[in-house]
Design goal:
The chain is mostly helical. It is 86% helix and 0% strand. It has one domain (2-203).
């Protein structure tokens, strides 16, 4: 069970956050910055996003109880939200939206581009937060599974940092076609995971 949870959490967060898909946005908002500044932005963004997702995992269930929202209802809503993100990835809308948000942030000269738009909403956006809360709910409060979830969050953020450091090289290696194909494949996988969340939520609601 812990191994299945670990694999599910890793695949879900890796697909939702989509480190490789963030490459165009990262290159856009850090364009013209020296290498040390790019490294600083990448590190701060990853730390901020990790803190947001870890906080969602810890306080998400409490917030649901406070608002009298059942976990099955949140699973269904979360699954639908993840499916909408997956559809954007499949049809190429997400990358365009990410690039547009990044360009707008640069034009407005946002003081801390690591926090916005890189950490929020590109990395720790609604989809990633929803997925984290759902995964925390699946853990059932088991300390071992929660520890695994925190480890997965740290691993995904570390992967994001590595990708950001290799952003220019990866973008050139994959090319336009490679980036498009990869985004589509990840979108289909995320769509399947989203449908599974909805099915689990409906089953749990009917069982209760």
């Amino acid at each position: 069970m812990p191994l299945e949870f670990l694999i599910s959490a890793l695949v879900t967060l890796a697909v939702v956050v989509d480190p490789v898909g963030l490459v165009p946005g990262f290159l856009s908002i850090t364009h013209g910055l020296p290498r040390p500044a790019q490294r600083s932005v990448a590190l701060r963004a990853c730390l901020i996003a990790a803190a947001i997702l870890a906080g969602s995992a810890l306080a998400g269930d409490w917030l649901l109880r406070t608002l009298s929202i059942t976990l099955p209802a949140f699973r269904i809503a979360g699954g639908l939200l993840l499916f909408s993100i997956a559809s954007e990835m499949v049809f190429g809308v997400r990358i365009e939206r990410q690039s547009r948000q990044a360009e707008e942030a640069v034009e407005e000269r946002v003081r801390n581009i690591a926090a916005f738009p890189l950490a929020i909403p590109l990395m720790a956006g609604p989809g990633a937060i929803t997925a984290t809360v759902l995964l925390a709910g699946r853990s059932g409060g088991d300390p071992t599974m929660l520890a695994l979830l925190f480890g997965v969050i740290a691993l995904v953020m570390a992967l994001c940092f590595a990708v950001f450091m290799l952003a220019a090289r990866i973008s050139g290696l994959l090319g336009t076609t490679g980036n498009t194909v990869l985004s589509r494949l990840l979108g289909v996988l995320l769509a399947a995971l989203a449908v599974q969340y909805v099915i689990d939520g409906v089953r749990a609601a009917l069982a209760s």
